[in-house]
Amino acid sequence: MGTPQHVEHGFGPVWNSDSSVLVLGSFPSPKSREQGFYYMHPRNRFWPVMSAIFADDTACPITDDGIGTSPRQLLEARRSFAIRHRIALWDVLESCDIIGASDASIRNPVVTDLGSIITRSSIQRIFTTGAKAATLFRSYAKPRLDEQGLDIPMTALPSTSPANAAMRLPALIESYRSIAI
Q: What is the mean pLDDT of residues 59-83?
């Protein structure tokens, strides 16, 4: 399976003062760290789900020739999408020991300071993507937010990772609809 490596997050949150929803993963995958943005594995269904629930396909652009856009254009399209729809993106952890992209292998987690953006935004709800993100949030981030007097409700959503292949795209879309409300 491999040896755990200590890994730093590598890129910051996406948000602005108008962000009303915070979507948290556990920790970025190697592909996301390589590209410096959230949910960048080509088979991760996060962006197709977001496109569906907001009826906005700009997060999954395809050019007229059907090839797609450059990685930089895709990253900027997704950043703009999140800001336009008042979604903040971040992860529960800023660093950890991990084997590849395996959330189950996470050890020695260091939690992100979520309060730093919550207090400077309009965030009213938090959503976690996947069981591990929810567990890490409850164990590490929620107590820190409580200490800061920040009581933001959290809803656990299923993982959009290709590892969660049992959950089909229509079911994911239905599960994520509450983000757009």
A: 81
Question: In whole angstroms, what is the distance from residue 172 CA to residue 92 CA?
Answer: 21
| R_g (Cα) of the chain, nearest Å | 16
- Model confidence at 72, pLDDT cuts 50, 70, 90, reads confident
Cβ 158 vs Cβ 126: under 8 Å = no
The DSSP output letter for 153 is -
* Cα end-to-end span (Å), the chain: 41
The DSSP letter of residue 10 is -
pLDDT of 22 reads 98
**pLDDT value at position 6?**
95
Instruction: Please give the Cα distance from 75 to 1 (Å, whole number).
Output: 30
DSSP class per residue in 15-61? --TT--EEEEESS--HHHHHHTSTT-STT--HHHHHHHHHT-GGGS-
Q: Within a 10 A sphere around the Cβ of 114, how many other Cβ atoms?
A: 26
Sign of the dihedral through C-alpha 55, 49, 74, 132: positive
Contact 157, 175 (CB under 8 A): yes
* pTM > 0.90: yes
